Amino acid sequence: MAGKIANPAPLGLFGFGLTTVLLNFENAGISNKALLNLVLSHGFFYGGLAQFCAGMWEFKTGNTFGATAFTSYGAFWISLAAFIWGHEGGLFAMAGQIDMFLYFATWGVLSAGLWLITFRISKALVFVFGSLVLLFALLAIGEYSTAVHKIAGYVGLVCGGSAIYTGYATVLNETWKGNFLPVGAYVAPSETEDLKA
Q1: For the whole model, what pTM was predicted?
Q2: From 44's CA, which of 1, 15, 138, 179 has a CA 20 to 30 Å away?
Q3: How far is CA 127 from CA 38, 79, 116, 123, in A?
């Protein structure tokens, strides 16, 4: 029992999910641009710092995927919030559309690689990362199309919502010791062999 820590995954999922939902209310045109101020602070602290910390704690648990994903997307939110804050404040006034296109595109490629790995973890994460890949693709294309950018907003709401669901399912199932909210966990080949034995 010594050295055991709580599961940091729900914190990372909530940090990612809630911040994604908040930003995409604005992307979808559901809220006005004033919400962006709140999203920036949320991106720095909950989506950014809290999720980054969850990634650090995943290193302690030995979860390589969780450590990589949460640390990466925590840093993503911090960098995005910093860029938007600097751009809106005139610090990066020379940044053109191509900069954000490449930014979203490269994160989409990273997410696609992580998405493939989720097929050995759970169906819930397959959905979260699959919708995230689609979101980044639409955000990249949306730099040149207002209509596509708005569609990306709705996809982002679904993506963030699925991350929140997965976080709640993890907390509920672990706390109540059951499978009350399914995540569709996959059985590893080694575990399958153990079941057959």
Answers
A1: 0.91
A2: 138
A3: 27, 25, 11, 6
